[in-house]
Structures are given as structure tokens and as C-alpha cells.
Design goal:
Number of helices: 13
Helix content: 40-55%
Order of helices and strands: HHEEHHHHHEEEEEEEEEHHHHHH
Structural class: alpha+beta
Radius of gyration: 39 Å
Number of strands: 11
Distance between the termini: 44 Å
Strand content: 5-15%
Length: 469
């Protein structure tokens, strides 16, 4: 049966099972499907089985979060309990107090630098692991730090960064490189026996008094002290005063010997000369001649046959030996902590990226090489674009981890002493505030960390859903 337009009537449609025009799929209209359930499945039974997990989740996650939000809006009384309602003052304190603001700044540096560097280093290791014979051994060695606790890693790097009282590995390498290109002074810490002959300082050098000029034909005695007589320099021999002769002559020596004795100001047996020490002759404040002392400490300026002179022992003879860098000092503590984090997480990034690279179709790589692409072009235009989803997952995961980094920072701060404050991050500031019964500030920092982590987590969840669609 049809109507005047030729369309089937409702009765006819019902009779033959044909859907009405209004029930058909038309552009712009989506039909809602009822969720299908297995036979015997009921919604209330699913809730019963999910209830324990939901209760545990609410107790462990939801309740602390809600409580922290509420607690962050109140001040603290003397016992750390709820004080008066202060609104957002605790949040304002984070950005107005110098210590917590420094922690915020350090967190920003961590987020900007560390995920990028760790991802890049992990990518380099992943590429190398595909091109060497012992790839499995390399991956095992690089991933091994992940099996070590952050506490043990922090103690390890504490020993590496040590500069007092013993020298750690980092400074041993630094000093070795420095001394290769700029040898240390031969007599660090050596200084004049008194001010009767030489005056000055280790930074400016030591000069004979202008009131006691040195003239040709005389022998200048330059007594020093402070040499390490237990292990003296190999160039130091028994001091000997040179005989009088033409020009300006003299001897520079350590006017002290093991066991004491001898006459102050004169060269005695078993007193060592400062062999190799540089000596300058000054006239009118200008250097007119330079020489070096022999192994017995004697020196001579045979060309200085007239006039009056002053003698100077320059600072380069006595400057303190280079002791390396203060790795946990105010300027390097944050990069030093980042380096420790890189050592731990580079293997983590490498393993994930290596797994992603193994899934890349080899046909695409070979096709690019056949077309004449160089290895760099294959890497940049084929490997990296196909690896982009894995790179993003690794990067976002590291961002989340860096935002709440605590262990490695806290352990290394214990070794930094008074410089610990320069390495603070938000998680450590939260711990300190909680330990000092500043629960309102600690709750505000915790809420801030949650707010900072949420965008990164949402990005990961959105990507996972997109990949499953």
C-alpha cells in the first residue's frame, strides 16, 4: 500500500518490516545504539565487583587530594593544625618567598632541559645499539642504572662529586685535564719566612723591600718556608748559596728542615732549594730580566752589572694547586643533579626507542637508501618521523617524572650542605614544609604539582585513546 506520493504507508511498512523514512539513516543524523550485554549481565552486579577497587581508590587518591585542596586554603596554628581561612595566600607564598620561588625556577629548568636531553641521548644510544655487534650487552649496561635505587644512585654521585676531604672521580678527571694544559705551580703554599726580606702575597708575588736594594756583586738570600718536606718536589735539592761574582746572584730556599735547628736567614744543611722557581729582576717597577733557580735554589743575572734592583718571586711559583670544581656549589648543583638523572634514565629512553625502531618497516629504510638518500637523510626523514609517536610518549613520560623528581635531589642536597637550597625543587620544598609543620604551604605545593602533571597525563591518555580508535 502506498500513499499519493508513492511512498509506502506506515501500515504497509510495518507489515513487510521496512523502516519508515524517519527511521532511516539520513545525513547528519546518528542512530544511538544500546550497549549490548552478555546473557545474565546486570549493572548492579558489575558495581558490586568494582566497589572494593573504587573504595580503595577513593581512600588512597581521592580523599587525600580533596583534603589537600581544602587544607591549602587555611593557615597553620602553632601545632600544625587548621588555622584561619586564608584563601589563596599559601599559593601566593609559593611565588613570593625566595626559597620556594627558587624551587619553582629550578623545576622549570628541569622540565625544559632534562626531558629533551634524555630523549636525545636515548635516541642516540638506540641508533648505536642497532649498528654494533654487542647490542644486547650495550643495552644491558645502559639500562642497569634503572635497577639501582635512587638512594644508591645519589650516594654514588655524592662520591663522584666529592671535593673535600678526598677528591672524587669528577674532580680527578677535571684536575687531570686542567693540569695537562696548565701545569700547577711547583711550590703551592710556600711563602716568605718573615717580612724582613720579602713582602707581598701569594696572589701578587713576593718582592724584596725597596729599602734593601740588590746590587751587582752581592748575593741575595731569599728565605721561604711552607714546603711539604714529607713529599718535597723532585726538583728540590740541598740548597747552596752561589759564590759572589759578576752580576746579581742569589739563592731562594726553604729556610726550615725536618727536626728544626739551623740559623734563620742562612742556608743550613738539609734545607732544600726551590729548584725551578722563577725569579724576576725589577728596576723602576719594571721587569728587566728573568731567570729560573737551579735545582739547589741558586740563580744569577750575569748581565746586570750596574744599578740597583729588586727581586720578585711571581705568584705563578706559589699559587695553590688547582682543586677542581665545586660540583655541588651554588652554580653547578642543578646541572650536577641533572647529570645524575641523565645517567639513570638514558637507558630507560634507549630501551623504549630501540623497541620503536625495531618496529619500523625495513622496506621503507631500504627504499630510501636505494633512492640515494644518505644515512643522515634516512634518519632525519624516515626514521624520526616514523618514530615520532614513541618519541612523544618517552618525552611526556619524562616530563611527568621530572615534575615530581625528589629522590636524587634530596640525597645530593645532603652532601651539598649549605648549598643545598640552590638545588631545591618543588617536591623537596613540599617535604621541607611538611617537616616544619607548615601543612598549608605543603598542601598548596602538592596541589600545584598535581595541576602541573595533569596536562601531561591528559596528553598521554588522549594519545592512547587515539591509537586504540
Amino acid at each position: 500500500m502506498t500513499d499519493a506520493t508513492g511512498e509506502p504507508t506506515a501500515a504497509a511498512s510495518a507489515a513487510v518490516g521496512t523502516p519508515l523514512l524517519s527511521d532511516r539513516n539520513v545525513p547528519g543524523r546518528r542512530r544511538r545504539r544500546r550497549p549490548t550485554r552478555a546473557p545474565g549481565e546486570k549493572q548492579w552486579s558489575a558495581l558490586i565487583f568494582l566497589a572494593p577497587a573504587l573504595i580503595l581508590l577513593a581512600a588512597v587518591l581521592l580523599y587525600p587530594l580533596v583534603y589537600s585542596v581544602i587544607r591549602s586554603l587555611f593557615s597553620d596554628n602553632s601545632a600544625g593544625g587548621f588555622g584561619s581561612f586564608v584563601g589563596l595566600d599559601n599559593y601566593g607564598h609559593i611565588f613570593s618567598n625566595s626559597s620556594t620561588l627558587r624551587a619553582v625556577r629550578n623545576n622549570v629548568i628541569w622540565v625544559v632541559v632534562v626531558p629533551t636531553v634524555v630523549t636525545f641521548v636515548g635516541l642516540v644510544f638506540a641508533v648505536l645499539s642497532e649498528r654494533i655487534r654487542w647490542a644486547t650487552a650495550l643495552k644491558t649496561v645502559l639500562f642497569m642504572p634503572m635497577a639501582i635505587s635512587f638512594l644508591a644512585s645519589g650516594i654514588t654521585f655524592d662520591l663522584i662529586y666529592a671535593d673535600q676531604p678526598s677528591r672524587g672521580l669528577a674532580n680527578a678527571v677535571t684536575v687531570g685535564i686542567h693540569d695537562t694544559f696548565a701545569p700547577s705551580s711547583p711550590y703551592p703554599g710556600v711563602h716568605p719566612r718573615d717580612t724582613s726580606v720579602l713582602i707581598g702575597s701569594a696572589h701578587a708575588g713576593y718582592t724584596t723591600k725597596a729599602s734593601k736594594p740588590v746590587t751587582p756583586g752581592s748575593v741575595a738570600l731569599l728565605p721561604m718556608t711552607g714546603m711539604d718536606l714529607q713529599s718535597p718536589p723532585g726538583s728540590a735539592k740541598q740548597a747552596t748559596a752561589p759564590p759572589a761574582g759578576p752580576g746579581v746572584r742569589g739563592v731562594v730556599w726553604n729556610d726550615f728542615r725536618l727536626g728544626g735547628g739551623g740559623t734563620i736567614g742562612s742556608v743550613d744543611p738539609r734545607e732544600l732549594g726551590l729548584g725551578g722557581a722563577k725569579v724576576e729582576a725589577l728596576q723602576g717597577g719594571k721587569v728587566v730580566a728573568t731567570t729560573k733557580a737551579d735545582s739547589n735554589g741558586s740563580f744569577a743575572f750575569p748581565d746586570l752589572t750596574s744599578g740597583q734592583y729588586q727581586l720578585r718571586l711571581p705568584a705563578s711559583d706559589f699559587a695553590a694547586a688547582y682543586g677542581g670544581l665545586s660540583w655541588l656549589g651554588p652554580n653547578l648543583i642543578v646541572p650536577a643533579m641533572m647529570l645524575a638523572y641523565l645517567w639513570i634514565y638514558a637507558g630507560f629512553a634507549m630501551v623504549l626507542l630501540a623497541a620503536g625502531m625495531s618496529a619500523i618497516p625495513r622496506d621503507a629504510l631500504e627504499a630510501a637508501r636505494i633512492d640515494g638518500a644518505t644515512e643522515w637523510q634516512v634518519f632525519r626523514r624516515v626514521t624520526v618521523p616514523l618514530l615520532a609517536p614513541v618519541l612523544l610518549v618517552v618525552f611526556v613520560t619524562l616530563v611527568i617524572n621530572v615534575l615530581k623528581v625528589f629522590d636524587i635531589v634530596f640525597v645530593l642536597e645532603q652532601a651539598a650542605g649549605a648549598n643545598a637550597k640552590y638545588g631545591d625543587v618543588l617536591a623537596v620544598s613540599l617535604y621541607d614544609a611538611f617537616g616544619n609543620l607548615h601543612y598549608g604551604l605543603a598542601s598548596a605545593i602538592g596541589v600545584l604539582l598535581v595541576l602541573l602533571v595533569i596536562p601531561a597525563m591528559a596528553s598521554n591518555i588522549r594519545r592512547f585513546r587515539r591509537e586504540q580508535a
